[in-house]
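Now for one record:
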Amino acid sequence: MNILKGKYKKINLTKIGGLNNSNYLFQINNKKYVLRVPSKDNKNNFINEGKILDLISQLNISPLIKYHNTKGVLVSEFIPSSKITLEIYNSKAFIYNTLLSLKKLHTNRCDIFFNPFNEIYKNIDYLKDINYNFHHDLNGILNKLKYIEEIYRNNMDLGLCHNDLNTSNILYTESDIFFVDFEFSGMGDIFFDLATLSWFLNDKLKMELLNSYFGYFNLSLKEKLENYIFVVKLWNATWSFIKSINSNSHYDYRLGGNMILDDLINNYL
């Protein structure tokens, strides 16, 4: 780790949060950096993440990476980011600037793939294997998932996707949007990213998002976005259930997953 070699014997680390990883802020020669250390139960493919980071290094959509290894330890330059409030998140300016950076990502190609349908099936199979106590009947939810998968199996809008665009992975400045944590990134349908961004948007802003990204809006785009919001929510729910098994976090992942399934059953089936 070049910036940590040599004369630097002691570096003060300040914890700055993280769900699946621990993140720390530190300073060398009046320049700030962020250290990311994956949690012990994080089994993501960091070799693939490294390839993605190399691929997008010239796009100016991510902080400059100073170090990254196959275990997921990462050091990047610190970019001061404003807190993304609901007011900011639900603004046309935020949507527009986020989509500018996202389009730069989506136009790239690589040999790494992320299939959210397979990931959901894999998560559920694992949970069933360990006799996880689900509070919901999953049959209707899985039938809906299979229906959506079948519709878009041969109708994908393919691009290099981030696949985890929650607000903790978006850095917001006055003029730019940057993304961090590319652990789940790979080729897939760009609607997975668009749906993640749309999770908390009202119908008017969803229409604004689609119109800003594609240059037009129609009911087919809206239907696909809504279907992928279902997929995004279900993926997050199954991830939360797995996280609840061995997490020491104060956040109740099991409750969070159950709330998402309540939403899917009440509003999407």
Q: What stands out?
A: The first strand starts at residue 14 and ends at 15.
